[in-house]
Amino acid sequence: FNRVIRNQAEKAPILDLSENDDFAMTFTGGTTGIPKGTLVSHRARLASCYTTVIEHGVTASDIVGIVTPFYHTMGSLVWLPAALFVGATAVLISSWDPDTFIEHTEKHGISCTFMVPVQLRQILSDNHFNSDKLKSLVNIACGGATSPTDLIREVGEKLSHAKFTNHYRQSETGPICIFSHFHPRSKEDTVGRPAVGVEMKIVNSKGQEVPNGESGEIICRGPFLMSGYHQNQQETETYFRLGDEWGWTGDLAKKDGEGFIKLVGRSKDMIISGGVNIYPREVEVVLEQHKKIIECTVFGIPDKRWGEALVAYVVPRDEEELTEQAITNYCSEHLARFKRPKYIKIVDNIAKTPSGKVQKPALRDAFLNGKNAL
Fold it and tell me: Model pTM?
């Protein structure tokens, strides 16, 4: 490092640079197919830094733990630049392990961090978990995947001194919605309200806003949006489909009367069974409330009678006995008949992308191949 610094020119290079020039290319999670390269400008990335600093109150006195890989946007292009932007200290943790994070937090006094839900759950369930070792950690941001309400409550119980913030964002955007620590606990099943600098609507297929309480697609506008997909004009035009500055996220949601946003699924994941639209996230939320279930995912498969049928993959909590029949009985009590999974599979874990998102297409293909083999 010292050698590199010594060999630098005395004068800074003259750069012909515009705020709209490409700053980086990040890739989508690949949950619906091949990952797409998203081009983000200097302006877009700086806007995301502003939002992060403001929404999380990051200051120069903070010690920020960077625990997501550098190919993950939130690590390299949001939280690290945000720390540098305000003059905070950044601790780069090269590989993920809950014990290592706890050790670094105690050693360096990490005060805030961003992580995906699976990382946070691993910390809370770690054999060496001790809240005293994490007493410096007062600001926890979580995102990249939906944070179940039981996880949010567990953070409140085990790390009661820390502020928890839930993110909703995409590779194509910066943070879109924020569920903050001061929001009512009754809203824990939402992703909060639109973040600073974000214009957001929930619309039908024609781009018209839907009434509160009705499902529609989230579209957003702001300086944080990507410029487009790398060498993929067709997908870029689909994302900005009305030819204006509004980006269509593909995420389906509802807004309540107080402006809180509740995700109900991806438009590509929506299941149509017997002519009725079923949003997988609504079923997943019910399953996550079962005291013996730690994780689940729901997707649709072709069905000769109904068009599509629901499949649920369920991961039981450690050392908990759980049967498919018990889950079926639970669904009968808590879900309308048309929302109940036809197939339930108990598994040890659920396949995810490197960024922690569930790979529903891969699970669907594996399930169908297994069914065909029977």
Answer: 0.80
Domain boundaries, the chain: 16-265, 271-373
Q: Which amino acid would we find at residue 125?
A: S
**Spatial CA neighbour of 76 closest among 356, 352, 355:** 355
Exposure b/e, 331-360, CB count within 10 A at least 16 = b: beeebeeebbbbebebeeebebbebbbbbb
pLDDT in tens, 115-127: 988 899 999 988 8
- In the CATH scheme, what architecture does the domain 16-265 have? 3-Layer(aba) Sandwich (3.40)
CATH 3.30.300.30 applies to domain 271-373: yes
